[in-house]
Amino acid sequence: MRKILMIFVAVMLIFTACAPQQRPLPRPMDQGQQRQQQEQQRAATPKQDLETNESSITQMERVRNCRVTANTVDVKAGTGEAFPTIGTLNRNQEVRVLDQVGNWYVIQMNNNRVGVIDAAKAKPIIKDGDNLQNQPVQQPQVAQQPQEAQQPTVPQQTPQRTPQAQQPQTQAPARLGAQEQQMVDLVNRERTKNGLQPLTVDLELARVAGIKSQDMVDNNYFSHNSPTYGSPFDMMKKFGISYLHAGENLAGNQNVDRAHTALMNSSGHRQNILSPNFTHIGIGVRPSQKYGYIYTQMFISKPR
User: Fold this and answer.
1) Which of 64, 104, 144, 251 is the most exposed place for a label (fewest CB within 10 A)?
2) Is 148 exposed, middle or buried (0-12, 13-18, 19+ CB in 10 A)?
3) Residue spans with biased composition (Low complexity) (predicted)?
4) What is the mean pLDDT of residues 20-45?
């Protein structure tokens, strides 16, 4: 009997030693501890990278001038080859575009007569003062279906522009600052790697970009829409910038390299940086207590 008891005790000791040890369950955190943990996690996230996910923005303006690229182009009385020819334009001739209807430009010839040309035979160009008015140009009406013994009725008056908004007295910088030039170099390096033409610095556009960055600092916001100037496209027009395509990238970061990396890792910003439509760039950098620096990249195309 004693031997059986000893065997039983030995078996129980072995079973107890092999059984898995239960760990004490963690005590649930109260609300104060949870809040403290969340604040510690937020503090560990680099604040200078938070705003670089802001969507980029881009826009194409209505074509207002074009240059003929074919040897000759027939000017039609309406939007179709079946309409009568009322004139002829030659290569490199420049005309005013009043409207675009499908694949046709409604143009005003040098004799002030209005007609229509094939848009594929002309190239949009920018002239000083284009798209600076606040109201759209009055759209002429042209015939879109051939009709026998009828000519389309179109206005013969030259479209009137509204006065240009008064511009601030600040002048464009003589050259870019060190950070701004560094960012231009990084942008053009990316474009070259992707087989694109480098962008030309437009100092007037750089002035506007600098004013936008300073406006964000002064008014404590981070957005494409300024409470002072409106959208970047409104702002460009108010400062006398003419363009066919335009775009804007914003970044809040501590230095140029980190801002550029964050922008290139964002699809919308990257698309602006590598857009084949743009020809010119302006960059404005201003110190920011919140981010270190605010970077505004403005892009435009000015086909001549």
Assistant:
1) 144
2) exposed
3) 31-42, 135-174
4) 52
- Which residue in 103, 59, 128, 56 sits closest to 302, CA to CA? 128
Tokens of 12: 């129980």
**Residue 245: how many CB atoms within 10 A of its CB?**
21
Query: What would the CATH number be for the domain defined by 65-125?
Result: 2.30.30.40
- Cα separation, 234 vs 228, in Å, equals 11
The residues, ordered by sequence, that sit 6+ positions from 123 with a Cβ below 8 Å of its Cβ are 66, 67, 69, 303
DSSP β-bridge partners for residue 95: 66
Report pTM. Answer: 0.66
Phi-psi region of 201 (alpha: psi -120 to 50; beta: other; left: phi over 0): beta
Q: What does CATH list as the number for 176-301?
A: 3.40.33.10
